[in-house]
TrEMBL record:
CDD domains: TIM. The active site is at 91 (electrophile), 161 (proton acceptor). PROSITE patterns: TIM_1, TIM_2. This is Triosephosphate isomerase. Its main location: cytoplasm. Substrate binds at residues 9-11, 167, 207, 228-229. Homodimer. Pathway: Carbohydrate degradation; glycolysis; D-glyceraldehyde 3-phosphate from glycerone phosphate: step 1/1; Carbohydrate biosynthesis; gluconeogenesis; Carbohydrate metabolism; erythritol degradation.
Amino acid sequence: MRTKLAAGNWKMNGTMAALDALEAIAETSVNGPAEVLICPPATLIHAARSRSGTVAIGGQDCHAAASGAHTGDLSAAMLKDVGADYVILGHSERRTDHEETSALVQAKCRTAWAAGLKAIVCIGETLSERDADKTLDIIGDQLASSIPDDATGDKLVVAYEPVWAIGTGKVPTTGQIGEVHDFIRRGLEDRFGTGIGGSVRLLYGGSVKATNAAEIFAVSNVDGALVGGASLKAADFVPIIAALN
Ligand code: PEP
């Protein structure tokens, strides 16, 4: 049985005042079985921890090295030290803005696991790749090369985020979401066996809102969502959590 997960990615949004929204989410979302996670900017993780109640806290990236001369970067152990339970890796904005490859994402994943963090590994096709009928090839490649061999359902979550759906208001059909999620599930089961492959949670991400969440959560192999814009305000995020419960 996979525990449902509602994960919020605040991206580069939020100063200390934003923690009021986190507190409101924590106060109103504790009644269901779904796990709730907020990934604020790293500057807020420590303060967030003391105001998040049962809501888990995560980072949005970590360096592939455990420590060292990497000015401006953060290690997985640093995130863990200030209260993070999770880290998002390979978000399409990192793959684009910082030219992150799947090999680098895999290296970061190993470092995150070594520090005791759970990794949410993001994969997804661009619009031109979908239009060229390459979606499953891209997803298969990213899945194979972004995830280390010693994955387990306790430490890995995979987020399917079509790049063209992130922050655009465009959402794939439920048929398209189901096709990709079933494909990812089969890929994980083929590689890791049905026990481990069947226990990894699969999130859909890309313009999830209160108005479309229930429909998306009803799709096979969708175990929750990775939510950007609609996770910034409790009024938007709490109904998404409710749809999962
Ligand atoms: C995201 O950033 O992972 C995301 C899914 O953003 P949005 O919900 O705003 O599309």
